[in-house]
Amino acid sequence: MSSAAISSRVLAGFGLRRALVRHRGALIAAIVLAILLFIVDWISAGPLTYFDVSFLSSGGATSALAAVGQTIVILSGGFDLSAGAVISLVNVVLASSMDPMAPGASILLWTVVGIGVGMAVGAFNGFFIAVLRMQPIVVTLSTMFILQGVTLLVMDKPGGFVSPDLGSFYLGDAITGWLPMPLVVIGLVLLAWFWLKGTRFGTALYAVGSDPDSAAAVGINVVLVRFAVYVIAGGCYGLAGVFISAQTGSADPLVGNPLLLSMFAAVVVGGTRLGGGQGGPVGTVFGAYILMMVVNILLVLNVSAYYSTIAEGTILVLAALAGSLSHTSVLAVQLRAARARLAAWRAGILPSQLEPIDRRLKIAGPTQNQRGPASPRPAFRLRNAEMLRYALPAYACLLIIVIVTQVWLGRAILNPGYWNSLLVLSSFLAVLALGQGTVILTGGLDLSVPWTIGISGIILAGMVNGSDTALLYALPVVLLMACAIGFANGFGIAYLGISPIVMTLATNGILQGFALVYSQGTPAGFSSPMLRWFMTARLGFVTPVVLLMVVFVAGAVLLLGRTPFGRRVYGIGNGLRAARLSGIGVERTLILVYMLSAVCAAVVGIMLTGFSGQASLGMGDDYLLPSIAVVVVGGALITGGRGHYLGMLGGVLLLTALQMLLAGTTLPYATRAILYGLVVLGAVMALRERRLQ
């Protein structure tokens, strides 16, 4: 054989090996999907038929289409938390606008309408993220709440009607008895992706996701690429909304909310790297069907559907961990460091094992007679200039809101009842602001707040069940559970290297499943009289919880501003590497930070149970965006390192006063959700760093 032939075979083998490594995630997902299909065939009553394949293909299509859009966003280095809300909006738009007597030709029209709605939302996100260079997490979270409000304005409860022609088309057969239409739709989307990937835009997309600064240096228009990414992703969400409308035949304004967890899980299971630059939609489609198959296997085994979110959250964590394993991963680094510490301990050379010797350099200072007069201490305004700069706008806006309330509704400024109500309603967010604010100061975000609140209230109410005596042991149990939740979040982030967004989102889904399993879908029990008195009684003009809040605020200010823990939090937020070089125990501090956040969320769950008299499923859902909004409105930097609890408290009072004003005007929840989202966007836009502009 000639040397040229040998060289060509070697190069071909090398190219094949490189391709296998590059597409490893998608190949593994395909193998896992094949194994799950075999398991389903094995545990089913009979062999899989074409009907079974068609049913399974339609069952995972919505999640697969939406996850393709999420994959494209993640490939560019972003995140999109508004995807589920886009699906819900498209669903209600179609169900409230379609003519049931329209001919089948309207299928194309309404498909275009659904995709167009999604692309319009994507353009909204892209403008703030790409053009104004705002954080994707905050922008898309705000958009999620805005869209939820718009969706409820269009249709505030399940109903409406989707033409049966839409269902017949998308759920039928492309080739009767041989090829289901859902697979054709997904195939066309993937073909469009392969075409897009081969263009200059596709190359630019991966370059921006890998290193946006390097991409900009070689002439790539990073702003245009990021804007287009969110528009394309919005179109995928819109198509998923059309598909789910065809499946349900009607509308539900909350239909897209459960898809967010499975969407991220499908992306990670499919081998796409969080942070961008590696992966693709093909693996994501396999990942979406893997999750669907897991849920179906649980149902075949007569396992309650309540376990589905537990399974999805667990799969998301395991997939994120498996996808990040490498020689340079956080887990690998931690294992090497642990091995080195163990070797040092055996050798007796750990710093704690050595004799303490002052090794500092002796520098001769001036004698008492040589010292000049002591410098005067700077004024309070100068010492706290930065805090005042970012915190005072919240209090100025609070004053404006109170004046408007007085003029519009009356009985505000001089009414003790108004101020007591303001402080009582602010107490929930004031507690959450400490936990979420501390997480944000480190550069993270805690998305497990809603169901930490929910499961804490549900477990407390179930254990107490109206007994003051039971409260004595129920409170410690709930708080210890919260510490365990926070420890799991912090450990996964600090030691396993899982992204805070992914880790806390997965934890939120797992907690939701546990809450459903514990309560069997109907929470039992109610608050004890003592807890109810604490949250609703009056001592003169003041509710008892207000007195506790005064102590809590003082403790929060001291914790973040006057303790070593607070200094470590700010140090981590200003730079992880610099914090390590400064001797800060980053891992231990992060675990404590997430434990603090979980404990604060649990306290809010306890307070809400006492305030309403009982617990309910989803009782924490309304507190995710506000817990972030008050921190941002109070002047904290969403990327960490800047903020003060007094500023966060100003944000709490401002948004609560705004909520009370809106409640006095009988505006619906939908309008409040829209305003919350707009307030957060406006605050982030006004307070973002100059270097981000």
UniProtKB/TrEMBL annotation:
Localization per Swiss-Prot or TrEMBL: Cell membrane
Keywords, alphabetical: Cell membrane, Membrane, Transmembrane, Transmembrane helix
Bilayer topology: Multi-pass membrane protein
InterPro entries the UniProt entry points to: ABC_transp_permease (IPR001851)
Pfam families linked: BPD_transp_2
Ranges annotated as spanning the membrane: 26-44, 50-68, 73-95, 107-130, 137-155, 175-196, 217-243, 255-274, 286-307, 313-333, 390-411, 417-435, 447-464, 470-488, 495-519, 539-560, 590-611, 623-640, 645-663, 669-687
PANTHER family: ABC TRANSPORTER PERMEASE PROTEIN YPHD-RELATED-RELATED, RIBOSE IMPORT PERMEASE PROTEIN RBSC
Protein name: ABC transporter permease
Native source species: Mesorhizobium huakuii
Lineage start: Bacteria, Pseudomonadati, Pseudomonadota, Alphaproteobacteria, Hyphomicrobiales
